[in-house]
Amino acid sequence: MTxxxxxxxxxxxxxxxxxxxxxxxxxxxxxxxxxxxxxFIVTGASVQGSRDAxxxxxxxxxxLRATAGCHPHHAIDLDAAALSSLDDIxxxxxxxxxGECGLDYHRNFSAPREQRAAFAAQLELAIRHGKPLFLxxxxxxxxFMAMLRERATVLPRAVLHCFTGVSTELDxxxxxxxxxxxxxxxxxxRRGTHLKPLVGRVPRGRLMIETDGPYLxxxxxxxxxxxxxxxxxxxxxxxxxIAAARGELVGDLAAHTTATARExxxxxxxxxxxxxxx
Length: 278
Ligand SMILES: [Zn+2]
What we know:
By secondary structure, the chain is an alpha/beta fold. The protein contains 10 helices and 8 strands. Bound molecules: zinc ion. Zinc ion binds near residues 100, 136, 161 and 162.
């Protein structure tokens, strides 16, 4: 077996409830498992999406965990009733993190004021449940950091998923103590090359990897797939790009990012080779 094929990975951000996976969700997981992706954190980005993510996790608890949260795009929907539903979902032991939540001023599908209110409410949810945070931030770094700093003394551990920021932003995130999630954005020659010199600065123990599928299909796959849909089977490819940028062997990167993810999400796996993955 080659080093790459023996490596084991965890995809910490996969939107597995997305309807583009409805027809072949099990095959999507199987293809990824065949390439070494052992476990998956299923992103909840709305109340219903979180409920659906939890249902998937309940059906395959050895390989799936859910997050429960409301993406900043949907902040306008997070009224008191929705927050109370999220609170119930968050209590389930298979919910490994609160989020995704945060701020996204890139498109402002919800107004910034609404986004900040929804984000603040979810920070409190994570504090109350004692669960880690799965964070999203785009074009909102200053407000995002300011809100985290306000609650710094009581916040649980937190990962900024799909980090796409610049050098000074990375410094602030690391100094604050955030974990960093890197997607196939780094494979994008139009907008992701700035990440290559940055990823080497994320210390071991603070770095995790993700596909964010079905979004963000790596643009440097060879040959180019027929479908534009991203899948967790491409995580080893993303890992190889990150490893090269860090000057690490991909097996080494897989080992330390997987160990970090297992600890961060409190997601152990059974080591028995006879264990059925589902
Ligand atoms: Zn996101």
